[in-house]
Amino acid sequence: MATSAPGKNPRLRLRLTAAAEAKVRSGHPWVFAESIREANREAAAGELVVIYDRRDRFLAAGLFDPESPIRVRILHRGKPVPIDHTWWSKQLAKAVRLRRSLFDAQTTGFRWLNGESDGWPGMVLDRYADTLVVKLYTSAWLPHLPEIQPIIEEQLQPERIVLRLSRNIQQTAVSRFGKRDGEILVGPALDGPVVFRETGLQFEADVLRGQKTGFFLDQRENRRRVEQLSKGRTVLNAFSFSGGFSLYAARGRASAVSDLDISAHSLDSGRRNFELNSSISAVANCARESIQADAFDWLENNRERKFDLTILDPPSLARREAERVRALGAYSRLTALGLAHLAPGGILLACSCSAHVSAKEFFEAVRSAASKSKRNFQELETAAHPPDHPATFQEAEYLKAIFIQLRG
User: Fold this and answer.
1) Per residue in 138-163, pLDDT tens?
2) Domain 12-77: CATH superfamily, name plus number
3) Domain 85-194 belongs to what architecture?
4) Which residue, 66, 73, 90, 100, is most buried by CB atoms nearer than 10 A?
5) Tell me: the pLDDT tens digits for 26-36?
């Protein structure tokens, strides 16, 4: 039987609507507030809840979050098992085992745990060299940190562990659990970014304050593909962040790269990443331009600039379902602007990290914009999640990319 922390209250028991019960049984990891038909009592964040079906049989166990529309994040379904130290250890070991063969010493930045898709709903665990970053998206994990942290230390033996918190739980974390975003849970203090390796290139990651956990690890495979396509090309990297695509393009012997971002901080990070790799002759010989501007505005107002490879990797344009239609329009406009900057034979890489926009919808928006341009394009390939970022249910499928090339 699933167990919870000792206390006076009886174990939290829930029953769900028929539709929700069917979704949980089919493997979906979330139970929404409106799907709960019956509960035996009120519950606090992080309590272990046991869900029973209509025949009073064990259905699943999960973590309860009274402050989120996602009330329960499923940990286990099927036959009852103890959710204890041994169980947590096995869950982590399973995810680690799946990734051991994916990377060698040339790549020390990757994801150990990818939330729901690895059985750790609402939590990710990223590696940056000897630093691990735990990011929580639900306060339900906060009371379990004292038990989880030693397990992570034992199995992965990091120099330090940094805690990052989603904005929506930061106030709860401080007031109820005394935890802050950017807190170092174990290990020495940091006086700057952490430097890690990706396919032999060095990058800095601002693990204390940076976006996500400090870097966009999920675009690794697309960066590798850009390197393969860059020889002799001029490259525009729109929404460049810290210049990951540009650095790969430079090592791939691009003749010049232009980083375009509205953030001076991001552009400075991109410059430092180039400096970190200046011993690589192709990087040292590649001209780098830094453009601080709104990408949409710059693309619109500088149409005379042409490039052999244009990369469009904007932040999420649909953070909620209500923004989906507007986001599709924005992706279409952005694609049209990017295509206008392609030289003959040029290649466009268009990306989306908006979970509320499906891959089908995004690819159709890009293809439609290419068709409306009245130019002749060839689709090279599409891409999705890298192997250390598995997506096992629809809502987790946020990342998609498409490469198209202008003929002639």
Assistant:
1) 999 999 999 999 999 999 999 999 99
2) PUA domain (2.30.130.10)
3) 2-Layer Sandwich (3.30)
4) 73
5) 999 999 999 99
